[in-house]
Design a protein that fits this description.
This protein is of the alpha/beta class and about 200 residues long. The chain contains eight helices and seven strands. The chain has a seven-stranded mixed sheet with strand order 3-2-1-4-5-7-6, with helices on both faces.
Length: about 200
């Protein structure tokens, strides 16, 4: 945390045209991706390993998650990862419009009690920020094992005119794509007998 994290933290400061995430990474990266709430970082680390030509920013405010991923980054010398340890909305608002090619929101906290629904990350104001950050043709991926939250997500997304659901048949949202590795939260859901949904949307 003391030696590695400071060099990887994304500086969020007001810039005239917004923050170009590609400037955060050494060398030349073809595109930038963003994972919001990466947990212990298994999915993010896999994507970083298999896509070395992509720069990936991971957002996670919890120290345990940051520490777990930092260990992997340090051990494997993953140079294409940068981190943000605060509210994802602040980072999204700071990014240059259309500067990201993919955004992941995988198994976010479902906040199951009705009085806490306002805390759910998938809500209109955050979807506006994601839409702004994504380039046209970019992809938003959302996963959840929580039935009520899944319905909530679908209700909110169906109202959007800036996102198009990629599903053409039930298998497109019931079966995890090959390039979407399992997270520990999904693995826990499987052990406890809960099924998950895998939603993919294109920015239009």
């Amino acid at each position: 945390m003391d030696d590695v994290l400071p060099d990887l933290l994304v500086p969020v400061a007001e810039q005239a045209n917004g923050l170009d995430p590609l400037t955060l990474f050494p060398g030349t990266k073809k595109e930038a991706w963003l994972e919001i709430g990466f947990g212990k970082g298994e999915h993010l680390a896999h994507q970083a390993r298999t896509n070395p030509d992509v720069g990936i920013i991971g957002v996670e405010p919890f120290i345990n998650g940051l520490a777990a991923l930092l260990g992997v980054i340090d051990d494997e010398e993953l140079a294409n990862v940068r981190l943000y340890d605060d509210d994802a909305a602040l980072l999204l608002a700071a990014l240059a419009p259309g500067s990201s090619s993919r955004v992941f929101v995988l198994f976010p906290d479902p906040w199951p009690k009705s009085r806490h629904h306002k805390r759910r990350f998938i809500r209109p104001e955050n979807l506006d920020l994601i839409s702004r950050a994504l380039r046209i043709g970019g992809e938003l991926r959302i996963g959840t094992d929580h039935t009520d939250y899944g319905n909530w997500i679908l209700r909110h997304m169906v109202q959007r005119t800036d996102f198009e659901w990629q599903a053409e048949c039930p298998g497109d949202w019931r079966v995890r794509p090959d390039d979407w590795p399992q997270t520990r939260y999904e693995a826990k859901a499987v052990r406890e007998g809960r099924s998950s949904i895998y939603l993919r949307y294109t920015r239009v």
